[in-house]
Description:
- The protein is an alpha+beta fold.
- The protein has helices at about 5-10, 60-75, 95-110, 165-175, 180-190, 195-205, 220-230, 245-250, 255-265, 280-290, and strands at about 20-25, 30, 35-45, 80-90, 115-125, 130-135, 155-160, 210-215, 230-235, 270-275, 295-300, 305-310.
- The protein has two domains: about 5-140, CATH 3.30.1330.10; about 155-315, Phosphoribosyl-aminoimidazole Synthetase, Chain A, domain 2.
- Helix content is about 35%, strand content about 25%.
- The chain has a six-stranded mixed sheet, with helices on both faces. Strands 3-6-4-5 form a four-stranded mixed sheet.
- Helix 3 links the parallel strand 4 (about 80-90) and strand 5 (about 115-125).
- It starts with a helix and ends in a 24-residue tail after the last strand.
- Residues about 325-330 have low confidence and may be disordered.
Amino acid sequence: xxxxxxxxxxxxxxxxxxxxxxxxxxxxxxxxxxxxxxxxxxxxxxxxxxxxxxxxxxxxxxxxxxxxxxxxxxxxxxxxxxxxxxxxxxxxxxxxxxxxxxxxxxxxxxxxxxxxxxxxxxxxxxxxxxxxxxxxxxxxxxxxxxxxxxxxxxxxxxxxxxxxxxxxxxxxxxxxxxxxxxxxxxxxxxxxxxxxxxxxxxxxxxxxxxxxxxxxxxxxxxxxxxxxxxxxxxxxxxxxxxxxxxxxxxxxxxxxxxxxxxxxxxxxxxxxxxxxxxxxxxxxxxxxxxxxxxxxxxxxxxxxxxxxxxxxxxxxxxxxxxxxxxxxxxxx
Length: 332
């Protein structure tokens, strides 16, 4: 299969949705009609760093890569529009694997009403996938960033945490002592996450002051929010909502469940801040969008993140950081 044959087969599996896309994949560049604001994010996924082919299918990988990128759009309250994929394909993978990746991404794009408008394909020693996702908003008032948290705001999170990290442990260890159905739910949480588009739009409109998605773990993501807003974010770890099965998987692996909930990452829930007067309407808006809210902390004067364990003692926990992983070496 030549590069051009591969691209033709990929294009035959993609569907244009809506009337915004004027020129889809197949030309030198895509052409998209844009009204209001375009919101753009880029995510890269590398074999051995973000995923292992030994524990994930190419179809799930396509879904997962698009979901992670769209989650960034959801965290700003943008509506997903278009996506572009750049794929580096190693010699041991061929047409079947490439089309499975395409099918996984296209299935999620259909659910979200998105159009995959093209990208790039190249030979590469290791598999990588780069996704550029573009969302849309009517104006800047419809969007929310990380920089609006103020002292006195409450800190909330949607859904439950630790499920993806627990699913990853199940994949690696094949042991968790769980009911099979619950184990499958945790695996699904890790392999095929759901970007919370409706919840993100609802929260952005309900009066939250800052928001981001939980991609690297509450411990790290709260620090990013605190830095951008110039505040101290205080989180009560005992209030973190744990996905069912997380505690059992953590104990089986000899880990503290709070480590998975606060530092495991890839849950793609939404972490946000909101003033006390709008707290009830925030909860109601998220609930209508299908995402329950748990209040887990407070914004205070200061800087950084303070994680409090039982009894109020500070506890140092970290989420995912690419540059601090074993084997990574920075230039002097």
